[in-house]
Design brief:
With 326 residues, the chain is an alpha/beta fold. It folds into two domains: 4-95; 104-323, Rossmann fold, CATH 3.40.50. It is built from eleven helices and eight strands. An eight-stranded mixed sheet has the order 3-2-1-4-5-7-6-8. Strand 1, helix 6 (143-152) and strand 2 form a beta-alpha-beta unit. Helix 4 (105-122) packs across helix 6. The longest helix has 29 residues, at 61-89. The model is unreliable at 291-308 (pLDDT under 50). InterPro entries: Nicotian_synth (IPR004298), SAM-dependent_MTases_sf (IPR029063). It comes from Zostera marina. It catalyses: 3 S-adenosyl-L-methionine = nicotianamine + 3 S-methyl-5'-thioadenosine + 3 H(+). Belongs to the nicotianamine synthase (NAS)-like family.
Length: 326
């Protein structure tokens, strides 16, 4: 482990490198897939993947602004990339047989397996027999929903929410010719902030990383889910840690604890970028008060009782699992 001085120097170099890439990205005439776009974003991801102790909350205002703008640029570029491949896939008679043409498909396979493994560890009945699942922010290429429905949650009905009707139209075309998924993948064009009573029907809600690109918007969505999800329902959301927080927004588990019991936070250190947070909606005010009292009494991170199961699933690449509840 390096000294504090070495850490500071390393963090300064990291921020300079990311700022340099940001300046090039921000000057691109378009963020649609191209050689320049692909090269710069590959360099950015490669820079952000290695483990880092950097705390983005402690960045200067200037660097905070740069990071916020960079996350938005990443989101825009990701949207263009998904649209490009959704269009390409729709040219096949059976699009779901060709998902591997998407360059990051293997990452989605790993992330979906990771999320399902964590869900199964904490809520095995939900993972194996959830009736309805919501995925918020599904986009034009809803790979997480597709992979979960095909390989892990084979009886669940997935309601995919996106505000963009074009994205939903593109996504629905991918499943039309699949006899099973055409019946179990539904696409709803609406702002999730306008969905109230329907949220009570889901056993588990997945929240995409780029729904709410700044913390204020993210917290609005989380508060809305807290107000309308069913007691005891599971929430799966994506965050980021270390330098990966220059690519995606960070969710602090403490922001959830008024309405949810945070069960664990998982920080991959391999090519899977997103951290995974799993939480359970409090069943009653009494449970909420008991959980808050436990949090006050036990501030330390507890050892993970489920690490061996996650490692057995193939996620033993230096991952950090933080158990928030006993």
């Amino acid at each position: 482990m390096g000294s504090m001085g070495e850490d500071v120097v390393g963090e300064e170099f990291l921020v300079r490198k990311i700022t340099e890439i940001y300046e090039h990205v921000s000057k691109l005439p378009s963020l649609k897939p191209s050689e320049d776009v692909n090269t710069l974003f590959t360099e950015l991801v490669t820079t952000c993947i290695p483990p880092s102790s950097i705390d983005v909350a402690k960045l200067s205002k200037e660097n905070q602004s740069m990071r916020s703008n960079l996350i938005k640029l990443c989101g825009t570029a990701e949207g263009f990339l998904e649209r490009h491949y959704a269009n390409l896939l729709s040219t096949f008679d059976h699009p779901l047989q060709h998902l591997d043409i998407f360059p990051y498909y293997s990452n989605y396979l790993k992330l979906s397996l990771l999320e399902h493994t964590i869900l199964a560890n904490h809520a095995p009945k939900v993972a194996s027999a959830a009736t309805r699942v919501a995925f918020i922010g599904s986009g034009p290429l809803p790979l997480t929903s597709i992979v979960l429905a095909l390989h892990h949650m084979k009886s669940s009905v997935f309601h995919n929410y996106d505000v963009d009707p074009v994205a939903n139209s593109m996504a629905s075309r991918l499943t039309l010719t699949h006899q099973d998924l055409s019946q179990r993948m539904l696409f709803r064009t609406t702002d999730i902030m306008d969905v109230t009573t329907d949220l009570h029907d889901y056993d588990v809600v997945f929240l995409a990383a780029l729904v709410g690109m700044d913390i204020a918007d993210k917290l609005q969505v989380l508060n809305h889910l807290a107000n309308h999800m069913a007691p005891g329902a599971m929430l799966m959301l994506r965050s980021a840690a270390g330098a990966r927080a220059f690519l995606y927004p960070v969710v602090d588990p403490s922001d959830l604890q008024d309405s949810f019991e945070v069960l664990s936070v998982f920080h991959p250190t391999d090519e899977v970028i997103n951290s995974v947070v799993i939480a359970r909606k409090h069943s009653s005010p009494l449970q909420k008060n008991q959980h808050q009292q436990q949090s006050v009494e036990n501030q330390m991170v507890l050892p993970c009782k489920r690490c061996s199961k996650i490692e057995a699933a193939g996620f033993n690449h230096g991952c950090i699992v933080e158990e928030q509840a006993s």
